[in-house]
Automatic annotation (TrEMBL):
Keyword Lipid metabolism: no
Annotated transmembrane regions: 27-48, 60-83, 89-110, 117-141, 147-164, 176-195, 201-218, 238-256, 268-289, 301-320, 326-346, 367-388, 408-426
PROSITE patterns recorded: MFS
Organism domain of life: Bacteria
Protein name in the entry: MFS transporter
UniProt source species: Bifidobacterium hominis
Length: 436
């Protein structure tokens, strides 16, 4: 279910402009990509938190229902841009339930060895969905994009299995902090909106809501994030590390569109084929990341991941003019690093918190990952449009698009070096073991 829903993100990211053009809404076409992304950032946090209170079975059935409803709505109302946009938001919100439930069940109920393996599988499924989505988006859109909406509807056939196998376990005697969760959801949502549609009043609203939320943590009646949660040094250092690791995660795809089109005059189909290969590599690496953590330990795995990212970004900056296939290989190197990071971070974070707070911990991690990547995407957009970066590059790189993209890769490399330094600084945070 998570795969079927998630592959739509990359599929629609690839063809959103085609949809806008066909419906006479070219100027607003990007909303099909940005608004569902904002919804995803908020619901990741929301679902992870609710999994501490509500039965996984009820959560999953809600999710698959929303996914199917969004799919059918988008297909039958494909003649209206705004209904298509609403359908995509419903699809995204429905699909993420399965992902959040899977991840929370993994960190709560499995032993250390199994936990690392299944976190890795979850990560691999994400990249597998991305690979299928890039391919499906190009293929299905070649005859009629509306049929993309029907792909996730296949998940309705798995409802009997979900009912049979998903546990019906909920927190007994605990009251859901509805006000606190709603306050934090709005706060997180405004942050995501700000980096897509920046404005001064949004910034003021974010600051005021942030103050209100922290006041609620300190003075509220049983807030869903307790004072001990936000002062947990191990968890907070892991959260900071994740912010740096995933900062340029969303920028990895668009920079290759710029390189392919402006440096090598390649068609979009060829670029998407190369990116599909990169995602396939990420899928394979995700599958082995769990056993790698069990074999090497979290610390060594993170060091390997950091080095892969540094080598991949630095190599791309140096060899920017040496051929697109060389850059594709280097993209496979740094995407392997990004993929490997996921398992030890979530594994360590789950052990840094009490079991009953793992859902909230996973939700905040998901939110941080999406928020960090959104901020990084905004930074990338300003960098790739900055004319001063196109004047010259290091190691003999000429001016123009080559210098521009090479310099951006060096900045991405610098972020990875910072992540490596933070791994060494907070190494104690990754040695915490969950209390039995």
């Amino acid at each position: 279910m998570f795969t079927l829903g998630t592959l739509m993100i990359q599929a629609f990211n690839l063809v959103f402009q085609n949809i806008g053009d066909s419906l006479g809404m070219s100027a607003s076409a990007s909303l099909i990509s940005t608004l569902p992304g904002i919804v995803l950032g908020v619901v990741c946090m929301l679902y992870g938190t609710l999994c501490d209170f509500i039965s996984p079975k009820r959560m999953t059935l809600f999710g698959v229902s929303a996914l199917v409803i969004g799919s059918l709505l988008g297909f039958f109302c494909s003649f209206n841009f705004w209904i298509v946009l609403i359908a995509r938001m419903i699809q995204v919100a429905g699909a993420q339930v399965a992902g959040s439930v899977f991840l929370v069940m993994t960190v709560k109920y499995l032993n250390d060895k199994e936990k690392a393996i299944y976190i890795g599988i979850y990560n691999a499924v994400y990249y597998l969905a991305a690979a299928i989505g890039v391919f499906a988006g190009g293929f299905i859109a070649s005859f009629d994009w509306k049929y993309l909406f029907l792909v996730p509807a296949i998940s309705m056939f798995f409802i009997p299995l979900l009912i049979k196998n998903t546990p019906d376990i909920s927190a007994k005697g605990e009251r859901i902090d509805g006000f606190g969760i709603a306050l934090f959801a709005v706060f997180a949502g405004l942050i995501a909106i700000y980096f897509s549609f920046p404005s001064a009043w949004l910034l003021v609203a974010i600051v005021l809501l942030g103050i209100a939320f922290f006041a609620w943590i300190l003075k509220g009646s049983k807030p869903f994030l307790s004072r001990s949660f936000v002062t947990n040094k191990a968890y907070m250092s892991i959260l900071l590390l994740q912010f740096v690791f995933y900062f340029f995660n969303f920028a990895c795809v668009p920079i290759y569109n710029v390189i392919g089109e402006q440096l090598y005059n390649m068609p979009l189909t060829t670029i998407s084929l190369c990116l599909t290969l990169v995602y396939v590599v990420a899928t394979i690496v995700g599958c082995v990341s769990g056993p790698a953590v069990n074999k090497l330990g979290r610390m060594k795995t993170l060091l390997v991941a950091s080095v892969l990212m540094v080598v991949g970004f630095a190599g791309s900056a140096i060899f920017i003019e040496k051929g697109f296939w060389i850059l594709t290989v280097l993209a496979c190197v740094f995407i392997a690093g990004v993929t490997v990071v996921y398992t030890p971070i979530y594994d360590a974070a789950s052990d840094a918190l009490p079991v009953e707070e793992n859902g909230r911990g996973v939700g905040i991690l998901d939110l941080m990952m999406n928020t960090s990547a959104s901020i990084g995407m905004a930074v990338y957009s300003s960098l790739i449009a900055n004319p001063s970066l196109a004047k010259s590059g290091l190691f003999g790189i000429g001016s123009g698009a080559a210098a521009q993209t090479s310099n951006v890769f060096w900045i991405m490399c610098a972020a990875s070096v910072l992540a490596l330094i933070l791994v060494l600084t907070f190494r104690k945070s990754f040695s915490t073991k969950r209390a039995e």
